[in-house]
Amino acid sequence: MLNIALPKGRLGDAVYDIFESVGYGCPAIREGGRKLIFESPENGVRFFWVKPSDVAIYVERGAADVGVAGKDILLEYQPDVYELLDLGVGKCRMCVAAPKGFREDTDRTLRVATKFSRIARTYYAGRGREIDVIGLNGSIELAPILGLSDVIVDIVETGTTLRENNLEVIETICPISARLIANKSSYKFKHGEISALCRKISEKGGPGDD
What we know:
210 residues; alpha/beta; 31% strand; single chain
């Protein structure tokens, strides 16, 4: 069996639809409830739901053979896994945002509020810009409004929250989408099964390799 870690929530539902459409469905998963593990022996798969930010850990540690994680998670935590496919769902952007009319003072350290400190540091290091990272876990948009930071680095999907708080995107760091990842040992010992899964998803007409 292939053990597959799915991210809980809307993204996980969209990703499961992809698996089901290429012959890796598990009818019990549609029944709802609080179950976390679902098996389909006839299709050779076992699915389990985990917190989106934990998928890569389950895959890296071998509890899952494959899983689906956002590119933001892969960039921030850099798990030791293989990134196999861009699934083309969960699309958004990693951006720098600031209050409207913001003008950067290059003579002083830029204060950056974010939950993605590695991504922020890497991005600004590439620009040769010194920054002070302020780690936050929620309501990042509040930081520049209340003067805690100059800018924020965060995921932007529609931009509605930014606009409603008088903020705007000033730079796009990179596009984000859901990626199929694999445990390195599993990729070796279950190469046939994992390759077949990748091939079927690719043949369906979706995005190819990253």
